[in-house]
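I had to read the description of the data format several times before I understood it. The format is easy to grasp once an entry is in front of the reader. For illustration, here is how one protein appears when written out as sequence plus structure tokens:
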Amino acid sequence: MRFRRWIFATVLPLLLSACDRPETNADQAPSRSLEEIRDSGSLVVVTRNAPTTWYIGRDGEPAGPEHELVQAFADSIGVEVEYELRDTVTAALDAIENGEGDLAAAGLTRTEDRRDRFRFGPAYQPVTQQVVCRRDNVQPESVEDLIGLDIEVIADSSYVERLEALKANGHPDLAWKSDDEVDTERLLRRVWKGEIDCTVADSTIVDINRRYFPELIAPFNLSTEQQLGWVMPQARDDLADAVEDWLAGFRDSGQLEDLRERYYGFFALFDYVDTAVYIRRIRERFSQYDRYFREAAAEYDLPYLLLAAQGYQESHWNAAARSPTGVRGIMMLTLNTARAMGVENRLDARQSIFGGAKYLARMKQRFVPEVTEPDRTWLALAAYNVGRAHMHDAQTLAREQGLDPHRWRDIKKVLPLLADPEYYNDLKYGYARGTEPVRYVRRIREYQHILANQVD
């Protein structure tokens, strides 16, 4: 993949030299056909730098839900991707209208107003518009409660369309400001800082940012479920058809569900108290054990932040932690596990972390090669929690139900059934509290996500 922030000078000559273009909206610059995109060897994609779209990961490589979708589509038509970054939704839409990109993949909701300007690709992600405020400021419970509040939303957005519809249908006093120079993430920060009362954001954006700013609340939904889609010039039916054909296969193969699981599967009900305490303990406790987690992760080829997040899930980074069932230490090892891992003192922080890392690495090795990453890590974490024997039963049950025993997305569906006598009476290892490993993996993934945002 090639990445260049400014490519307009390269693409414009191609756009202007084409003489066989289909007719376009008079307000839109000429656009490249699918054939021309293939001939050039590159797809020009407009996006935003944000957690739900495109960003540079800790390994220095591009990541994000939109990035992975775009890359998969580009691979399917045999081209590379060149990204045009824009700061706001307005700028991303203007870029498509001005001929500065072939499509926009920027978390854009499919709305009627936008359909008048652009050609949308198929839906690929459901979202709901949510009102977002700070819990110790205002807590509106209805649209009527928004009247008189200081509300700001991004300009040219689906949020503005929804607010305008509400204003025209029963709420004439509803008022807000719209800003075309900010993105939703910055408005959420302004709400958190108390600079404005509320804003509106998609549920996926809210889910992620509440982990960074736990004081944010989403007191009610402003819309029913909507869908995201890629935006293309109106004349580009050929490109839109290619996207639709590719996405149908991508969805049918389970890859779209895998992508959603990877980026959003660990977000469930938000726990304000737990998240706030976690962020405080990152500041107060984590530095004591940071070096041990880094060293142990390196020795056993594990993700450092994942191991640290697991340590928090186990003990809240309390080296002296004990449970009534006899597990102890930061990684809450049983006596037998500690002995098997060569741990002499479970209450010694370094020994516990290295022992836990060694045990997790061993769990990862006990699955067949068909279990690939990241599923291998999620299944290994579940095995760490509930035991490899019960994971064997879960995989057996998955096969019986026509699910994939090598995918976490399917295993987490059957694990809770290990507590149901209708199922566990026929399984080799019997009863297990199968809901616990599902929650365990979800919380570790959530803690890892928050930790990555807090640690340099």
In short: The longest strand covers residues 216-228. Residues 16 and 414 are 56 Å apart (CA to CA). DSSP finds 21 helices and twelve strands in the chain. The domain at 125-228 is CATH 3.40.190.10 (D-Maltodextrin-Binding Protein; domain 2).
